[in-house]
Amino acid sequence: MTDEIKKLTCRDTTYLVISARDTPLSNQQIAELDAHLQTCSACRTAKQQFAQVFSQLDTLLARGEEP
Question: Which of 2, 9, 47, 62 has a CA positioned 20 to 30 A from the CA of residue 55?
């Protein structure tokens, strides 16, 4: 039995991209996210931008932890 891939909105996609930073996505969520990203260039761009912001945040937070 296979799960049907739900069509996500851009808002749903944003929530999943942000959530994936803190908690692993389920296989179903990954499939839904990938399906949306294949068809939405705006969400692909937003995902890349979130990745850059998260990377910069990680760098800044690591600097703040140094003695």
Answer: 9
What whole-number distance in Å separates Cα of residue 28 and Cα of residue 53?
Answer: 26
3-state secondary structure 1-56: CCCCCCCCCHHHHHHHHHHHHHCCCCHHHHHHHHHHHHHCHHHHHHHHHHHHHHHH
Q: What's the rounded Cα separation, in Å, for the pair 25 and 23?
A: 6
Q: What is the residue extent of each domain of the chain?
A: 10-65
Six-digit token pair at 56? 């910069």
Distances (CA, A) of 36 to 39, 50, 60: 5, 16, 31
pLDDT, tens digit (0-9, with 9 covering 90-100), for 25-44: 999 999 999 999 999 999 99
Spatial contact of 19 and 25, defined as CB atoms under 8 Å apart: yes
Tokens of 50: 């979130």
